[in-house]
Amino acid sequence: MKTTTIDRYIESHIDESVAELSRLCAQPSVAAQNLGIQACAEKVAESLKARGFAVQILPTGGSPVVFAERAGKGDATLIVYDHYDVQPPEPLELWDSPPFEPTVRAGRLYARGVADNKGNFTSRLHAIDAILAADGELPCNIKFVVEGEEEIGSVNLEPFVKENKDLLAGDVCVWEVGGVDHQNAPVQMVGLRGICYVELRVRTANRDVHSGTGGSIFPNAAWRLVWALNTLKDQDENILLPGFYDDVIPPTPREKELLAQLPDMVAYYREEFGLTGFLKDIEDPLELAIQAVYQPTCTICGLTAGYQGKGSKTVLPAEASAKVDFRLVPDQTPKQVLAQLRAHLDAHGFEDVEIVDLGGNPGAKTDPDHPAVRLAVRAAEDVYDQPSRINPMIGGSGPNYIFQEYLGVPIISSGAGDSDSRVHAPNESISLDLYEKAAKHFARIVLLMGEY
Ligand SMILES: [Zn+2]
């Protein structure tokens, strides 16, 4: 491995790469608001073309997918999954610098999408530049699949991957997220929970009414919604949909062993989030780690009804709605949850509560002892100051099951994320030091793939 030459290139050209990342972050690409999507896809395509990749911007039912491939010396193919869309930047007033004006402060680059996941994308390009500068060619084939709807549940990715199985085929997939934990240890995240996201809507009249006129005799949409929500979960945290837990698979002994090697999060979470305690009165670190990711959830993400402005307004709301997400664990599926939710609401007399399906996907996991995971761990060895940790399942979600289901590939991680990255929140950022490390880690993954 010519890692010294490659590392030197990564270090000495880091400013160019950060400049490229900044240009990409200056281009808004908010899938939820259909803002800047096409323009950003074109920028991603240009960056890949500049590295000698054959690039196609392929249509889907929504945002296009940028697909790029470049052949290498070896037979193995590394798939890189990234996304060019970002979360909405709101609330804007909580940003210390504008979300689409990338700004460096104290060794960190701030911008919406810089950590999730434009920075990981450009750090990988930077690693490729370094390898090409050192060697003139890639040690393995590389295919980029860069989608534009990850932040809205990858709603069109499954049919796309299904239809393009041969085009996308490969041996190992590097996932969009990666980086270090709050103790700066690199982490391999090999499993992701699934998700089922719904909006529940109630309408009880054709318009809002004076609460003196209707309060005693008209149905109230806000109360209907609150009562319906109240049936979904009890105060002991049991989700009450019929059959909801039937397909939940508990962690394997090996997964528990890996969870036990992860840092104790009890004190960190308490302090970081100002908590007085955890649900179900959990105190034990391993129990907390298991409950945090091997249990499905039902989260009310938002509630809307009636008047919430200054002072009082005596009004009876005709409409109410709630956004609810269910984080799912293997082998639950969003399809089943939607059916269970409908059956449950109907059985409790809430036929009037409409369910709007806002997307979802099942969870999936890679065997933590897969040779590809070992490769990614080995690749991190001389980049970070600490050995890698393997996290068998993280709490978040993503379309990893699509790659595992249709392409049959193991999934590994690399990236510049850390516990200060504030993904999805105001002041999203990455550490420039970790950005450089992410590039070095990815370069080593590519080199090792040459022997895979
Ligand atoms: Zn995200």
Structural class: alpha/beta
Q: On the 0-100 scale, what is the average pLDDT?
A: 96
Question: Number of domains in the coordinates?
Answer: 2
CATH class bucket of the largest domain = Alpha Beta
| Each distinct ligand | zinc ion
Question: How many beta-strand segments?
Answer: 20
| CATH homologous superfamily assignment of the largest domain | Zn peptidases
Strand order of the largest sheet: 1-2-6-3-7-19
Mind telling me the C-alpha Rg? 23 Å
How many DSSP H or I helices?
Answer: 15
Please write out the topology.
Blueprint: H1 3-12, H2 14-26, H3 37-49, E1 54-58, E2 65-70, E3 77-83, E4 103-105, E5 108-110, H4 114-135, E6 141-147, H5 157-163, H6 165-168, E7 172-175, E8 179-180, E9 186-189, E10 191-203, E11 209-210, H7 211-214, H8 221-230, H9 253-260, H10 266-273, H11 285-294, E12 299-305, E13 315-316, E14 319-328, H12 334-347, E15 354-361, E16 364-365, H13 371-380, E17 389-391, E18 394-397, H14 400-407, E19 411-413, E20 429-431, H15 432-449
Parallel strand pairs: 3-6, 3-7, 7-19, 9-17, 10-18
Antiparallel strand pairs: 1-2, 2-6, 4-5, 5-20, 8-9, 10-14, 10-15, 10-16, 11-13, 12-14
Helix pairs in contact: 1-4, 1-15, 2-4, 4-15, 5-14, 13-15
Zinc ion is lined by residues 87, 116, 151, 423-424.
